Amino acid sequence: MTLFRSTAALVLALGATFATPALAQKKYDTGASDTEIKVGQTIPLSGPASAYGGIGKVQAAYVRMINEQGGVNGRKINLIQYDDAYSPPKTVEQVRKLVESDEVLTTFQIIGTPPNAAVQKYLNEKKVPQLLASTGATRFTDPKNFPWTIAFNPNYQSEAHIYAKYILANHPDAKIAILYQNDDLGKDYVKGLKDALGAKASSMIVAEKSYELSDPTVDSQMVTLKASGADLFYNITTPKFGAQAIKKAAELGWKPVQILDINATPVSQTLVPAGVENAKGIISVNYGKDPLDPQWADDEGMKRYKAFMAKYAPAEDANSGIATYGYSTAALLVQILKQCGDDLTRANIMNQATNIKGYAADLALPGMTISTEPDDWRINKQFQMMKFDGQRWVLFGPILTDEFKTN
């Protein structure tokens, strides 16, 4: 996922600027009417990435709030969710059901790189939007080949470029060991790092080990990586395996500089299971306000978020990036649907999603906005470095923008 990023989530403020819908007759595709907008998604409520299931729960709560407020342009959102256990074959089965039986207007936030990869071709052939896919793999920001797919998460290669710049500036002689998930997620992070390290990649990277989602642990990989003599650990994982890797490094007495990808940064899902004392000093990036950071205590966007969580999702951990991510993505869905006006066609959904202008989120870091263009579909492309202090993530350095476009 992209995650997701821990505290990452950007919540798109409802008062932002957006593309003006044309004043025209009502237009509907399958799944839309005067009273309803059908939206479908798969989420991992079980399986190896079940930590991400909380995203879907918060999204459902956000939709419930919007519907209580009258819906979007007078229409209620009917959010249909199925558990796919982060298993691509199950994703295929459930997405076909959403499209062919439930007849949704659009999919939304299918969670995870392997699940999204499994249905990308199908959705594009059916011309059903793969909207705000919960992945940052480069293949999901490829409008030429997949014009019905747009991802929410920062591009994994873009994120890796930021890490490479940090390493070259602060640890130019590092010996790097890499643990990565053996799929598009992991491979993109590795490629992005190597590309941005340039000619130094071959000498700096001393070990690489992958793992499969079906692996029970990554213990053996960690033993091998420590034995390489590396003094910088590039940990490209999702929460379950990220926690295992951090914990195993501590058990082995291995204390390298650690860089953790944004997807594995949720404190309660990754760092607490790993042992917060073992995670102290880990470096990553963020693109949103952390609910645990006291500097946002009086921030209006944070206040709105916390009030929402208390009323609509009290069983979820409001301090987790899982929750902030769910909130942010649901808010963007609503904004895109608002932009559609009375033209609720699949083509217009994609048109509005790729014409977002200067969109400032409730939980966006100061100075960060979202804009998409016909030749740049990346929704999130700005970052700030952060370090875990044993209790929370602490931001440092300037806002960084990766200018690389994936076409």
What is the CATH architecture annotation of the largest domain?
3-Layer(aba) Sandwich
What about the largest sheet? Answer: 5 strands, parallel
The helix fraction, in percent, is 25-40%
Strands side by side in the biggest sheet = 3-2-4-5-6
Structure description:
By secondary structure, this protein is an alpha/beta fold. It is about 35% helix and about 20% strand. The chain is built from 13 helices and 14 strands. The strands form four sheets. It has a five-stranded parallel β-sheet, with helices on both faces. A four-stranded parallel β-sheet has the order 8-7-9-10, sandwiched between helices. A hairpin with a 4-residue loop joins strand 13 and strand 14 (about 395-400). Helix 1 (about 55-70) packs across helix 12 (about 320-340) and helix 2 packs parallel to helix 3. It is globular and about 65 Å long. The model is unreliable at about 1-25 (pLDDT under 50).
Strand and helix layout:
Elements: E1 27-28, E2 36-43, H1 53-68, E3 76-83, H2 88-101, E4 106-108, H3 113-126, E5 130-133, E6 149-151, H4 156-170, E7 176-181, H5 184-197, H6 201-204, E8 205-211, H7 219-227, E9 232-236, H8 239-251, E10 257-260, H9 267-274, H10 276-279, E11 283-286, H11 300-312, H12 321-340, E12 343-344, H13 346-353, E13 382-388, E14 393-401
Parallel strand pairs: 1-12, 2-3, 2-4, 4-5, 5-6, 7-8, 7-9, 9-10
Antiparallel strand pairs: 11-13, 13-14
Helix pairs in contact: 1-12, 2-3, 4-5, 7-8, 8-9, 12-13
